[in-house]
């Protein structure tokens, strides 16, 4: 859930370092660019397929909202573990040697989902899916950048940035839309979405195996170590501000990837699975569009706009829940998604700008670690709150906490830019 910035090093990745690109372009690299983009899109979409299906699991097995957040949080744990242990290895062994196993893990997760809807299987499937996404997201972004540079050596990175953002965050929105549609209008709603994506994942893996490699494997590999994480990059206040912004933005993404569908079904009395998927699509689509349209804005400007939009969106969203008005809830979600997208892109851009090239991977690794804590932690806390509060009351307190966090980010931003 990240975005590239206007630098040659893909900022999505907390681990990827610049690699040499071929000097001349080729048609194979151009075709490979779109194949990798399709694989990226398919994988990210698959990772959010369960979003509109959680209410069905709740009805089938009596899951509580809290248990849904646990199932979701296991995915975030898998992503973090994979990012730290394997996200940087493609710099040594090549992109395809990481991308293909990552797609294999997503395929295994799909088979697990198909095998059983029981809770233990769901937990394992989500963890495996997280492992695959952690391996794939950083590596696919780097591979796209290198294929783009090889195919169009003189071109600006704008095309790569747009396609990468659309595949990444656009994919996160597409998954719930597809699974929500299938769950609404086709039989076997807890099986067919996973079957469809299992076929798609297998197909893109075959296509990906034919794409050009962009990294020459080193004759002597560096000694393996997990990705180093560091917050000391010459501007500690700026780094802390960026990390807090990343946490706040992913808190919104986590909410709409986990229990928002249940809130819409029960608190707003709209149990449509297609609607649940469309809401997630609206939020992630707004985030992706905002990131694509603001490439030329400075990180500080994006951060300010993101803070305002996320805050305004959440006010509107909570009003929609208190009035049980779906339209107000939808508007609030879309605006909050725009704000979250801008805030996270600003955070990544700020960290890339402040970190020395040799330590950029460490800097972004720390940022992503905080971001994924934001993805899972607030959602789990909200799930715990629903054990003793109504969904509307729990969301209200969630909004209060989010506003406190956004205010903190604003203060940190001001301090980090003091005197400049």
Short note summarizing the structure:
With 420 residues, the protein is mainly alpha-helical. The protein is 73% helix and 0% strand.
Note down, in words, how this protein is organized.
The protein is mainly α. It has one domain: Growth Hormone, Chain: A, CATH 1.20.1250.20. 73% of the residues lie in helices and 0% in strands. It contains 15 helices and no strands. The chain has helices spanning 27-47, 54-61, 65-86, 90-93, 96-115, 119-151, 158-185, 192-208, 236-257, 260-266, 273-293, 299-322, 326-354, 360-385, 391-416. It is globular. Residues 2-24 have low confidence and may be disordered.
List strands and helices in order, with pairings.
Elements: H1 27-47, H2 54-61, H3 65-86, H4 90-93, H5 96-115, H6 119-151, H7 158-185, H8 192-208, H9 236-257, H10 260-266, H11 273-293, H12 299-322, H13 326-354, H14 360-385, H15 391-416
Q: How many structural domains does the protein architecture include?
A: 1
SSE string, helix = H, strand = E? HHHHHHHHHHHHHHH
SSE class: mainly alpha
Can you identify the CATH superfamily? MFS general substrate transporter like domains
Notable features of this structure?
single chain; 420 residues; mainly alpha; Growth Hormone, Chain: A; 15 helices; 73% helix; globular; disordered N terminus
């Amino acid at each position: 859930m990240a975005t590239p910035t206007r630098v040659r090093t893909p900022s999505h990745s907390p681990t990827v370092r610049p690699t040499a690109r071929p000097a001349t372009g080729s048609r194979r690299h151009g075709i490979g660019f779109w194949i990798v983009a399709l694989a990226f899109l398919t994988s990210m979409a698959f990772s959010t397929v369960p979003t509109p299906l959680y209410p069905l699991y709740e009805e089938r097995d009596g899951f509580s909202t809290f248990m849904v957040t646990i199932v979701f949080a296991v995915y975030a744990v898998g992503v973090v573990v994979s990012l730290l242990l394997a996200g940087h290895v493609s710099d040594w062994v090549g992109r395809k040697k990481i991308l293909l196993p990552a797609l294999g893990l997503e395929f295994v997760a799909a088979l697990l989902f198909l095998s059983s809807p029981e809770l233990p299987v769901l937990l394992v499937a989500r963890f495996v899916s997280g492992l695959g996404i952690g391996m794939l997201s950083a590596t696919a972004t780097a591979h796209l950048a290198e294929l783009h540079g090889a195919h169009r050596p003189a071109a600006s990175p704008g095309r790569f940035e747009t396609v990468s953002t659309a595949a990444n965050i656009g994919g996160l929105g597409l998954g719930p839309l597809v699974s929500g549609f299938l769950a609404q209008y086709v039989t076997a709603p807890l099986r067919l979405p996973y079957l469809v994506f299992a076929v798609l994942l297998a197909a893109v893996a075959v296509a990906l195996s034919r794409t050009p490699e962009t990294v020459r494997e080193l004759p002597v590999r560096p000694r393996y170590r997990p990705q180093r994480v560091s917050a000391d990059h010459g501007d500690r206040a700026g780094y802390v501000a960026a990390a807090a912004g990343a946490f706040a933005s992913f808190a919104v993404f986590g909410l709409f990837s986990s229990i928002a569908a249940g809130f819409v079904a029960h608190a707003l009395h709209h149990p449509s699975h297609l609607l649940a998927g469309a809401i997630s699509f609206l939020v992630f689509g707004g985030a992706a569009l905002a990131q694509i349209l603001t490439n030329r804005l400075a990180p500080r400007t994006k951060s300010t706009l993101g803070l305002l939009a996320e805050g305004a969106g959440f006010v509107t969203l909570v009003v929609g829940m208190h009035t049980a008005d779906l339209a107000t809830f939808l508007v609030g979600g879309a605006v909050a998604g725009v704000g979250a997208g801008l805030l996270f892109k600003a955070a990544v851009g700020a960290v890339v700008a402040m970190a020395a090239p040799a330590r950029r991977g460490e800097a972004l690794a720390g940022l992503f670690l905080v971001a994924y804590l934001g993805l899972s932690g607030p959602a789990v806390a909200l799930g715990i709150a629903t054990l003793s509060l109504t969904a509307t009351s729990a969301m209200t307190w969630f909004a209060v906490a989010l506003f406190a966090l956004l205010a903190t980010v604003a203060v940190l931003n001001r301090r980090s830019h003091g005197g400049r």
